[in-house]
Specification:
Layout: H1 8-22, H2 31-52, E1 59-64, E2 70-74, H3 77-100, H4 107-126, H5 130-149, H6 154-182, H7 198-201, H8 205-222, H9 231-238, H10 241-267, H11 269-272, H12 276-298, H13 302-322, H14 326-357, H15 368-371, H16 373-387, H17 393-406, H18 413-440, H19 458-476, H20 479-488
Antiparallel strand pairs: 1-2
């Protein structure tokens, strides 16, 4: 296949644009021009990414570090889903940020790293092998660290350090898994169903199982899977709301993508089916689902409640992947898309509330729906989608996950999984709906005379509305995403 230089643009253009922002004069002068530059960069990134995703397979070899170490990019069905999802969410959150950053300093630094991270996400989506993926996975971690650090307060610095320590620990585990697989052909190009050399595997099943476990837990750290979830509820509340949104909605999905590539495109699901690795993976995922929901239910700070919710909901995806079953895989991929839209909408809604009122605790949000009706209606629709109320997107993905579990033949997990998902859905209703109900119906004893209209500008409400509407529309008409998921799963099972 000929070298396709176009694949380099979505990776290195946003990185170059982000670095360019660092050399511009600091301060509030020229703010409009800088924001126009960021908007134009993201729109161009979206357009070129869409072009890269059309047609057949594309590939580009960036360099070779040795006989078996190649840095390369390729486009396949999975790339199309993750690349388009990340750049679309980045554009919407970026638009929201233009207004939100009015009350933040060092805007150039925020948008600079924001663009650099998008380039790393494109590289992860297009990565053609584990070495390429791991390289840009580390770049994404280091660049996104500065989004957590952004406010420069002591809690923000400590949260960023915790994010870094967990990420480094997870990355080392993933690296161990990659090294252990290198002798079995695990460094070759991704292929549906796995690429390991059957001859090299003879007598080494224990090493392969250990490698798989290291890769799952290592990449699962970024996805917030127990026991490596601790960074998430600490980092999200301290980061600016737009950073929290993309950390939850997109960056956690790169951990999911790493697990998919390792299990389904390198090792192969057949090697893990019925093994202790699958059992441990299923158990960790279900523990995370229930634990995250319980902690979210008990949490009083809104952004931290949403962070614990992410811990739970992303492990819905991990559970679906761990079942190693086609219908469950479909449900997991659908939840990747729907959770990204929903959680971005929820964090942007929380950010809009903080921006306009300064309120951070759930107990302070009585009558907030009267003051910010558009924002809270978006929050309400996104909440219904996350709970899984039909016909919203969350219902579709959870239906496939439950059906896949029942058909998986995984013993106790075939019924325990759907039971835990149902319990988690009830807890999700318990920690999200009170925000909406008290927001619109604060009670007869509330002082209605103190109400003020605080709706933010269109730059903030429009992205929230698009995300909330998307979660509903794609739930009612899921065929477009289903077709993409079916194409991505081709050849795996």
């Amino acid at each position: 296949m000929e070298q396709d230089f176009l694949l380099l643009f979505p990776v290195f253009f946003p990185m170059a644009a982000g670095l360019f922002l660092f050399v511009l004069p600091k301060g509030r002068t020229g703010r409009r021009g800088k924001r126009l530059f960021v908007a134009a960069s993201l729109l161009l990134e979206l357009a070129v990414t869409a072009v890269c995703l059309t047609g057949g397979e594309r590939a580009f070899v960036l360099g070779e570090l040795g006989e078996s170490l190649r840095i390369c990019f390729r486009v396949d069905g999975l790339s199309r889903i993750f690349a388009l999802l990340s750049v679309s969410m980045w554009l919407l959150v970026g638009i929201f940020s233009f207004r939100y950053m009015d009350h933040e300093d060092h805007e150039e630094r925020f948008f600079g790293f924001f663009l650099v991270v998008e380039g790393a996400l494109a590289a992860l989506s297009f990565a053609g092998n584990l070495i390429s993926f791991y390289l840009f996975f580390e770049i994404m971690t280091l660049a996104s660290l500065f989004l957590v650090f952004h406010e420069g307060t002591r809690p923000a610095i400590l949260a960023g350090l915790k994010y870094l320590f967990y990420s480094v620990a997870g990355a080392f585990m993933a690296l161990f898994g990659i090294i252990f697989l290198s002798g079995s052909g695990g460094l070759g190009n991704f292929a549906p169903g796995g690429i390991l050399d059957g001859t090299a595997l003879s007598g080494h099943s224990g090493i392969v199982s250990a490698s798989a476990f290291f890769l799952i837990v290592g990449f699962g750290t970024k996805a917030g899977m127990f026991p490596m979830h601790g960074w998430l509820p600490t980092a999200h509340p301290e980061a600016p709301a737009p950073a929290s949104a993309v950390l939850s909605g997109v960056i956690t999905k790169m951990g999911v993508l790493g697990v998919i590539r390792a299990v389904y495109f390198v090792i192969g699901p057949e090697l893990l089916r019925g093994s202790w690795v699958q059992t441990a993976w299923l158990l960790l995922a279900l523990i995370t689902v229930f634990m995250g929901s319980m902690l979210a239910y008990r949490e009083k700070i809104l952004k931290k409640r949403l962070a614990y919710s992410t811990v739970s909901q992303v492990s819905y995806i991990m559970f679906g992947l761990a079942l190693l079953e086609p219908m469950a895989f479909t449900g997991a991929m659908l939840h990747v898309v729907f959770h990204s839209m929903v959680k971005d909408a929820l964090f942007l809604g929380a950010g809009a509330v903080i921006f306009r009122t300064g309120k951070t605790r759930v107990s302070e949000l009585a009558a907030i729906g009267k003051e910010m009706p558009v924002t809270i209606w978006c929050f309400a629709f996104a909440s219904l989608a996350l709970i899984g109320i039909p016909p919203a997107g969350g219902f579709v993905s959870k239906w496939f996950l439950a059906q896949g579990a029942l058909a998986s033949g995984t013993g106790v997990f075939a019924w325990l999984g759907p039971a835990v998902l149902l319990a988690s859905a009830l807890l999700t209703a318990g920690y999200l709906l009170p925000v909406v109900i008290r927001g619109f119906f604060p009670g007869a004893d509330y002082d209605y005379g103190s109400l003020k209209k605080r709706e933010p500008s269109l730059l903030m409400t429009a992205p929230m509305a698009v995300l909330a509407a998307g979660a509903l529309v794609f739930g009612m008409f899921p065929s477009v995403i289903l077709n993409a998921v079916t194409a991505a799963a081709g050849g795996i099972f």
